[in-house]
Amino acid sequence: MGRRGMARSVTIRGLMAGAMCLGLAACDIVGLGSPPVPQPPTSDPPLPVVAPEPTPKSAAAMIYYAQIQQTLLTQGMLRTDGGREIAFSDRMLTENFMRIALFDEYRRGSGGFVREETESRLRRWEVPVRVGVRFGPSVAPDRQATDRARISSFVARLAQVTGHPMSLDDRNPNFLIYIVSEDEREALGPTIRTMLPALSPGDIAGITAMPRSTYCLVYALSEGNSGAYSRAFAVIRSEHPDLLRLSCIHEELTQGLGLPNDSPRARPSIFNDDEEFALLTDQDELLLRILYNPALRPGMTAAEARPIVESLARRLAGGDS
After folding, report:
1. Is pTM, for the whole model, over 0.85?
2. Is beta strand 175-180 parallel, antiparallel or unpaired with respect to 228-237?
């Protein structure tokens, strides 16, 4: 069936050239809209802004993902209840955290990312997370308003869970979310190269040539071995129906905070490729609370983090059943 989301953690040295551009309001998405042109005064009411008709490629994607969502719902997947009836012990919480936070699903090769699980270091944000949202012109204004409201609400929830400062900030973002159509995403290459010049052509192709089986993705970047994220950007398909779209918002924002891997043993969790849960679960919240606990620090190895994670998991989940 394919994956709902992908997270790719990129460690890059020398990001200063791109950092300034990322933080400027003028660095908008190339080809995804331009500043409004002032209109002369008129007594007539302004005409409503209407999104253009979808291209054949985008229309086909809408049909495809609507079918995917319906099939998953028919199978009892994409649950939104949080799975509170599913018990998990502190030992399970520990192992899920170790696998999801301290392993990468992808290894960066010379031609881009290769799917290969490798042990990594603990990563998270140390600076406030400022989330900016960019829409392609294919996204209707009412849909934009709904998406923005949902993202704002979820950012506030994540800030409360982690205790880390997070906010919606379109003027000076360091975590950008693009909601774009097939054609708009394929044209993002020049924008990505301008914003993140250290990415390889293979990295960029991972976005512009994203396969159908990838519903959405996020890249999170840190410098050297610090483990401290400095920026992230996510891509969500505008063709998604409502629940798939919301699930992508939950997964990519959460993975972009420092939970880049998936585990088939994690349940209830969105960090599992089985698509059972669409939205952040209670266990996922505990994973985030562990990740942003002051006892842990970015750059820790799995061996350094494990005893601290075990102690935190006992406190949060209790028991050893």
Report:
1. no
2. parallel
Helix (H/G/I), strand (E/B), else coil: 124: strand
Supply the DSSP string of 199-226, one letter for each residue.
S-HHHHHHHHT--TTB-EEEEEEE-TT-
Which residue bears the tokens 């998604």?
Answer: 240
Q: Residue 283 phi/psi, 5° resolution? A: -65, -35
Question: Using an 8 Å Cβ cutoff, are 209 and 188 in contact?
Answer: no
C-alpha triplet 194, 196, 202: angle, nearest 5°: 100
Identify whether the C-beta of residue 87 lies closer than 8 Å to the C-beta of residue 262: no
Measured between alpha carbons, how far is 3 from 275 in angstroms, rounded to an integer? Answer: 8
Specify the residue for token string 């939104």: 80
* CA-CA-CA-CA torsion sign (252, 161, 283, 73): negative
- Euclidean distance between the first and the last CA atom of the chain, given in angstroms as a whole number: 33
CB of 210 closer than 8 Å to CB of 266 = no
- CA dihedral (61, 262, 143, 186) in degrees, to 10, reads -50
Question: What whole-number distance in Å separates Cα of residue 34 and Cα of residue 201?
Answer: 26
- Helix, strand, or coil (residue 16): helix
pLDDT truncated to tens, each residue of the chain (321 aa)? 335 566 656 544 333 223 323 322 222 232 333 334 444 444 455 545 567 889 999 999 999 999 999 999 999 999 999 999 999 999 999 999 999 999 987 656 555 556 667 889 999 999 999 999 999 999 999 999 999 999 999 999 999 999 999 999 999 999 999 999 999 999 999 988 877 777 889 889 989 999 999 999 999 988 878 999 999 989 999 999 999 999 999 999 999 999 999 999 999 999 998 999 999 999 999 999 999 999 999 999 999 999 999 999 999 997 543
Q: How far apart are CA 106 and CA 118, in angstroms?
A: 7
Residue of 277, 254, 248 lying closest to 5 (CA atoms) = 248
Cα of 170 vs its chain's centroid, Å: 16
User: How many Å apart are CA 306 and CA 300, to the nearest integer?
Assistant: 10
